[in-house]
Write a structure and sequence with these properties.
The protein is mostly helical and 138 residues long. 60% of the residues lie in helices and 0% in strands.
Length: 138
């Protein structure tokens, strides 16, 4: 008896296999697990002490404590998304919000925001490298 194509792909660890994790997904998950705690630390420092970051005139001007809470919540979401990406869950692939918040935070701390934006772009690129199988995915 011949094996079904999807079954053969799953047996040898093809794209439909839930047990395998591609290199891009592993990279994205690891980088999310790095970016998340860094964002949490930045948020905690913004909440704890308002003088850590400089205040500027900017269209997206928030109180620095508010920025701290935003980064804290985004950091927790990134850690959860990183765990999802590392366990090969489809819900772990929606982690583009950090790029948006870092873009809005550039006037406050550009030496931090620009490298983290670069990291976020690499994460988004790695997450979009995921290919659905011929059967439309799960």
């Amino acid at each position: 008896m011949a094996a079904m194509p999807n079954q053969a792909r799953q047996e040898r660890g093809g794209p439909d296999s839930s047990e395998t994790l591609s290199g891009a997904s592993l990279f994205a998950g690891a980088m999310l697990m790095l970016s998340g705690p860094l964002s949490i630390l930045m948020g905690a420092s913004g909440i704890a002490h308002d003088t850590v970051f400089s205040v500027s005139r900017y269209a997206y001007r928030f109180d620095l404590t508010a920025w701290g809470w935003i980064h804290l919540v985004v950091g927790v979401a990134l850690v959860i998304a990183g765990l999802g990406a590392l366990t090969n869950q489809s819900w772990g692939r929606g982690a583009g919000i950090s790029l948006i918040t870092q873009f809005m935070f550039v006037p406050y701390y550009p030496a931090w925001s620009i490298p983290v934006m670069t990291l976020d772009l690499l994460i988004i690129f790695a997450l979009t490298r995921f290919h659905l199988g011929a059967n439309g995915g799960r």
